[in-house]
Amino acid sequence: MFKVALVHIDEPTPKVPDWVKQRLESQSIDLAFRQCTTSAEVSELAADADVIWVWGGSPLVRPEMLADFSRCRAIIRTGSGTDNIPVTEATAKGILVVNTPQATSDPVSDHAIALMLSVFRWIPRQDRNLREGGWVCKDLVWDRHLHGSSLGFIGFGRIAQCVARKLSGFDLRYLAHDPQVSPEVMAELRASPATFEEILQQADMISLHTPLTEATHHLIGERELGLMKSHAILINTSRGPVVDEQALIQALTERRIAAAALDVFETEPLPDSSPLRQLDNVVLTPHVAGYTDEFIRDFWHYSVEAVCDMAQGFLPESYVNPQAVDRCGFVARDQH
Predict the structure, then answer these.
(1) Are residues 175 and 258 in the same domain?
(2) Residues 75 and 133 in one domain
């Protein structure tokens, strides 16, 4: 029987919904669940599993453990980012790393747009000004205009493409940098392919949509911030450590860039002592971009679909290491 080891649910009350159990049982899938708190517990539960399932951001699956999982062909990370999964080591062993960006691409794209517009029009500062007894503050309104501005995407995957599609009526010029996305796909959304440096130098607004890896850690640092326009806005809904936070604080404090809008931070929760909390040219939200009334349901739904696909021998809809495809034993449906 195909065995799936669900080793952690990142929820206050971890529980597998009854419909999930029923769906997997109907597909002859053996689900073993334990709310593991140590890597040793993970090893015990998943020793003979075909798939290891991490629901959320738990870091309990460590690189050195993979050798113990002799049957493991895939690791599912419910959610989008896989920075808590040892992707490089899994790839070397032919283990597919699966994620579920479908569950959050719509709300995260909404949130990225909301952050962009709120900082572009200084909505939070206008709100505070009015609540404190003020009225029209021209300095917060007439220093820019949106139409004809350039929006640069660093990373042009599912979420960034949703942003581009939703903003299609705003008369923006798109620039996009993503080595994994073809120019043809970019052209379909009216995005012009650009180098990383070209986006930094040319874009009026820059939206980050890259996964956190060794290569993207502090992708935006002092040098990169120095290349940006003085009126540029940086939006980050990806992962906090993609940006060197101290360098960003310095650039915002010195007004070397105009503003930032951030949903993610290097340390979460954001420390009370963080200077970001005191800056008036930054909009902050507490890593909630993916949250809606549907996201829990969708997290389970897309994860279960991925499990069922693999139990039937098929590749799931989304995975982050295509280099492992030839060794993991799953095939595309159109090859069946």
Answers:
(1) yes
(2) no
Mean pLDDT score, 229-239: 97
- Annotated catalytic sites, by residue? 239, 268, 287
The number of beta carbons lying within 10 Å of the beta carbon of residue 122 is 21
pTM above 0.90, yes or no: yes
Q: How many CB atoms lie within 10 A of CB 11?
A: 12
What distances in angstroms separate CA 230 from CA 200, 256, 260, 276, one per listed residue?
11, 5, 12, 19
Domain extent for 61: 2-103+293-335
d(CA 308, CA 316): 9
pLDDT in tens, 58-72: 999 999 999 999 999
The domain tally of the chain equals: 2
| 217 and 321 share one domain | no
Among the listed residues 196, 209, 112, 206, the one whose alpha carbon sits nearest the alpha carbon of residue 155: 209
Q: How many Å apart are CA 135 and CA 149, to the nearest integer? A: 27
